[in-house]
Amino acid sequence: MEILGYFFAMVIGLVMGLIGGGGSILSVPIFTYLFGIDAMTATTLSLFVVGVTSTVGSVKSIVQKKINFRLALYFGIPSILGILFSRRIVLPNLPPYIINKWGIELTKEMFILLLFAVLMLWSSLKMIKKDRSIKKNIGKENNYTLLISQGLLVGIIMGFIGAGGGFLIVPALVMLFGMNMREAVATSLFIIMINSAVGFISSLDKIAIDWPFLLVFSGLSIIGIFIGMLIAKKMNGALLKPLFGWIVLVMGIWIIIKELFLP
């Protein structure tokens, strides 16, 4: 199972390199089911992997000056507050059993994984669905208010389940400020890089980190990113996105079945 887990570490990077995102949503299930790591630790390790992979993508974007730092600031600061709220207040204070009545047992770990599975189902449907022109909402005074509120929401979600949230950030930047997709993706990766670092560091006093394991896992993901980038030059990533969406959909359904019916 561990050998399979290390293989999927490269798959995470491969997916990121091919379609510019999505790979991070695989990391929590891989840590939990293939390496037997508890959900709280898995979400923390996922933040590290997300941060490392985002950094690789961000460095190139910074050099090419594709990042809108002003909008990244408006989105990033509220999202950091959301992450700290999830990691420092919500998660540590969740009871071991969310529900333990009338023969229904829902543990803290089950709750985190089920919430993650719901996110997987949602994001998979967005990947499977054919891209349509995004209706832009430029020029309204409340755009910055909406951006700040979305930043807070993404931070809370990201801190809770350890996923990057790029599928929420990119549409917000495009719809509210008319960014082109390349600039939105580059800005999103930069925001995710900062958020992941904050989320990971804020949890270091809560869990024990197996650094050799985490560094090897992240290193394999980085190798996968470069392989994916090379393949992406010869393949259309848009064609691969729906296929990956179906894989994520099946995994999300399997997690729900596993947690609710096959504990």
Automatic annotation (TrEMBL):
The chain crosses the membrane at residues 7-33, 39-59, 71-90, 110-128, 149-178, 184-204, 211-231, 243-262. It is found in: Cell membrane; Membrane. InterPro entries: TM_pro_TauE-like, TSUP/Inactive_protease-like. Keywords: Cell membrane, Membrane, Transmembrane, Transmembrane helix. It is a multi-pass membrane protein. The keyword Transmembrane applies. One of its GO terms (cellular component) is plasma membrane. Its main location: membrane. Coiled coil: none annotated. The keyword Aminoacyl-tRNA synthetase does not apply. Belongs to the 4-toluene sulfonate uptake permease (TSUP) (TC 2.A.102) family. This is Probable membrane transporter protein. It comes from Bergeyella zoohelcum ATCC 43767.
